Amino acid sequence: MPPNTAHPVGQNGDGLAPSPGAPPRQPRHLRPRTPAGYSNARHGYPDADWQPPRLLDSAASDTGARDIPEPVSAYDLCRGHAELRPPVIDGLLRRTEIANLIAAPKLRKTYLAMQLALSVASGQRWLGYFNCRRGDVLYVDCELHPETFRHRLEALARVMRVQGGPLQRVDVLSLRGRLRTIHELQSLFVGPAAHLYSLVILDALYRLVPEDFDENSNGKVTQLYDVVDRYAQFSGAAFVCIHHASKGNQWGKSVTDIGSGAGAQARAVHAHIIMRPHGVADAAVMDFALRSFPPQPSIAAKYEHPVWVRNQELNPADLKTSAPPTKPADRNWTPERFAFEFVNHNPAAKALIVARACDAGLGERQAKRLLELAADRGLIRLRPGKDKRQAAYVLAGKAKNARTAKKSKPGKDI
Fold it and tell me: Are residues 99 and 244 in the same domain?
């Protein structure tokens, strides 16, 4: 169980109801939304710690072109940006940064993302390992029914001992059955809704893309992440985009190659976090490609329903692989052996003989080459048919049993 490092809250048994004496949280539309009403203390930071950067208005100018910022000298840049932006997840993600969290379907990445939301809301360590700065969270859920989300959240809150106070820091926007595009979420982060959340989780990003979106287009993917980046800059929040891995085995790929779609998705973010199955059941390996933090080593995590916990007893190098062990290539194939094993006195077409050889572990090119050599040496003969497609090979008198045939040196004929 992850250690509970949250600020003390009341104990009320079910982990969901507000703690006795806790002030009720204002409805979302009544809370301060403007930059003037923004308070870092409310997000777990001192008031003077950091302020979100001022951005130009996104409206187009009279010429139809969007305004661009004025260039500044390197001297002024260094004076004006002396400190890195404060972290939301120590070692992984800072304010206004974007992260991908990528895993194969049904690897329980939604539990992992919900666990992250509660960790930030309560100030606990994520996975019992990464320190989180306490703040408000918006979870945009596009996949679960509200009842399912509530059931999972309740289970996580109970195990993590997250009580009513931190739960009031988590807002949930359920969009299953009433999906919106990423552009239609603008009012949550730009203008009156700006500067409210420390962390925004988009689960899953693919369900928020426009109708004409092509995930294999680097241009389209770059534009999508530019919208998310703009929301992050205006609101001051860090964004985590939940995404799925491509089909097939992922164990042999590099970290930034994991993720369905164009490679721009890994280049557009500040943290690319991936999960791949471990060789042990209910375990996974997490790898990280980071931009504003030093490299993080791979870690192994074990799923102990309903939470993920870092497990130091598991070796992160022991990734699960579905590939069968590679057998050493058999280089002892000669034309004599090939003719005896795959051709007989019953006529067989070339394609059938090659298929028999491939089933036995030979490559297609190797099988065709051995078939040609066997024919050239008179070990097999071609019986013509009415047309080329009906031509078939049969065993000739010269072919001998492979056990009695003179052995050739390995690799001599192929």
Answer: yes
Question: Tens digits of per-residue pLDDT, 201-254?
Answer: 999 999 999 988 999 999 999 999 999 999 999 899 999 999 998 877 777 788
Average pLDDT, the chain: 81
119 C-beta neighbours (distance < 10 Å), count: 29
The CA distance from 233 to 243, in Å, is 21
* Main-chain phi, psi angles of 194, to 5 degrees: -75, 160
Residue 128 placed within a domain: yes
Read off the pTM: 0.69
Residue with tokens 């024919």: 375
CATH number at residue 368: 1.10.10
Q: What is the pLDDT of residues 7-33, one digit of tens each?
A: 333 333 344 544 455 555 555 545 544
178 pLDDT more than 70: yes
- Of 378, 374, 383, 315, residue with least CA distance to 349: 383
Who contacts 368 (Cβ-Cβ below 8 Å, separation ≥6)? 350, 354
Residue 371 parent element (H or E): helix 364-376
> Quick one: 264 and 151 in the same domain?
yes
Helices (H), 60-172: 74-80, 109-122, 146-160, 164-167
Structural domain tally of the chain?
2
Spatial neighbors of 21 by CB under 8 A, at least 6 apart, are 10
What is the domain extent for residue 286?
Answer: 28-49+82-310
- The whole-angstrom separation of Cα 274 and Cα 276 is 7
Whether residue 334 sits in one domain with residue 397: yes
